[in-house]
């Protein structure tokens, strides 16, 4: 009898997750990801050489033949110049992964996602499935991906290392042949994209696998569920890895450890499933643009607003920066990341390990977003209140209420009172608090006002503007 029970137990353990969405969706989200809240996205590749328009440069130039890209090439490059001719200029001579790790650490991020391969097909590691079109064979002649994961795990082990991987490649002949056959063949999947995905996971052990480039074909073509079953059952990161939702047409916003739904997804209301707002410091591109004016970069206040909205509604934020072809994080991007980190140094208590509160934003005063942790409720205030007096319509004081101001530790608890409109809080003098942009109240012993509508049980649909990167 004991032997039978043991064999059954071993059989169940071996079976693990089946290659079906019904089974894969039962896997619990590893706790580190929800607690992390803040990640950094890095879009880096051959597209960083022309650094014009966007990381979709090759497709816009020789696929869609967008006039601005065609004219740019005619004006600046010799006739018959090919996209592959850019690769030797992807030099990365200033690339110091340990300096990158320091900047990432200074940003307050708890995970990083690097583009291991974008839609151009060029891999940042020496993939045996991308011979002659990888960072060791042509360009910097070094393993860019491996160097960064080593630096992160050596210098900043509290930051989880992850990678982005594009399923499709714009001009790969095998992919185009499968596409011409209406994806009834899988030559590209079996000979290129899936073998390299298994390879990169086994070699670098990423704790985030951020899939993309999936939307032209169904998940059955990509064999997505087969890969994910292996990832969750047998891979070297099976216990800690998280994946997004871009595994085939119709899959985003429906299946995955967390949902991205679309780029810049930020619904502004509580979502029933863990999600991520992947967004950019450059409003118009994920890759570096040499000709981007300063006004095309979001301000630190814009960034903190995105952060507050996102985490209050059960999201993580993944903030993108685009390094240069020579391996630098542009100063304006580094500045934003360091500003974010200085804010988190003061206010991280309201961010890391936080959970959504009963209310996500205040019912009376605009620009206030709530999080909670334990017995504390945090009000993230985007704008300093007029005359230093803030009225909250969603919080009720009790006999045990106490309110403090993060970054004002030397001062006494804040004064407050209940008025007809809500809970009125008196701010300390601005000159006596740390921080310049967004401020946080830590409240204990407060109750929420009743909800007027129950939380929604379905994911919000992405807005049309979320798809901007496909059109640029």
Automatic annotation (TrEMBL):
Keyword line: Glycoprotein, Glycosidase, Hydrolase, Signal
InterPro entries (UniProt xref): FUC_metazoa-typ, Fucosidase_C, GH, Glyco_hydro_29, Glyco_hydro_29_CS, Glyco_hydro_29_N, Glyco_hydro_b
Gene Ontology CC entries for this record: lysosome
Gene3D superfamilies registered for this protein in UniProt: Glycosidases, Golgi alpha-mannosidase II
EC number: 3.2.1.51
GO MF annotation: an example: alpha-L-fucosidase activity
Signal peptide per UniProt: 1-15
One Pfam short name: Fucosidase_C
Domain Glycoside hydrolase family 29 N-terminal span(s) in chain numbering: 12-349
Keyword Ligase among UniProt keywords: no
GO process annotations (BP): fucose metabolic process; glycoside catabolic process
Reaction it catalyzes: a neolactoside IV(2)-alpha-Fuc-nLc4Cer(d18:0) + H2O = a neolactoside nLc4Cer(d18:0) + L-fucose; a neolactoside IV(2)-alpha-Fuc-nLc4Cer(d18:1(4E)) + H2O = a neolactoside nLc4Cer(d18:1(4E)) + L-fucose
Residues annotated as site: May be important for catalysis: 278
Keyword hit for Transferase: no
Family in the record: Belongs to the glycosyl hydrolase 29 family.
Function: Alpha-L-fucosidase is responsible for hydrolyzing the alpha-1,6-linked fucose joined to the reducing-end N-acetylglucosamine of the carbohydrate moieties of glycoproteins.
Protein name: Putative alpha-L-fucosidase
